[in-house]
Amino acid sequence: MEQPLPTAKGSKCLNHPDEEAVTRCKSCRKPLCVQCSLRKPDGTYCSEACWNKVKQHQARWAQDKAKAAEFEKNEAAARWRARLVWFVIFLALVGGAAYYLHTHPAALEKLTQALAPLLKKIGLQR
Ligand SMILES: [Zn+2]
Ligand SMILES: [Zn+2]
Hints:
This protein is mostly helical. The chain contains two helices and four strands, in the order ββββαα. One zinc ion binds near residues 25, 28, 30 and 50.
């Protein structure tokens, strides 16, 4: 005699009250005897309808997961684009400032004078 699964132990088949249940439907949890259990690649079911319900559910779940992954990918790409934009702006500002000071020695001189007390304070210039 086949050993009943722990989940169906002590239960009787819902369709055959005299038969010991050996398993439960993976979808509706109905106790099932050997005759009534419908074996599918991913488990045992009471009917095609129950199996289809689970299959549909799994398909939707996979779809949702794919959608979530796609969303996350787009989010990450957007974050990187934003970082790149800020980096370009930063480079343009630094480059522009350097170019300005390079082409305007008087401004560089003024800036150095303005910064001198500060540099002295932090000990970079004596
Ligand atoms: Zn079922
Ligand atoms: Zn049965």
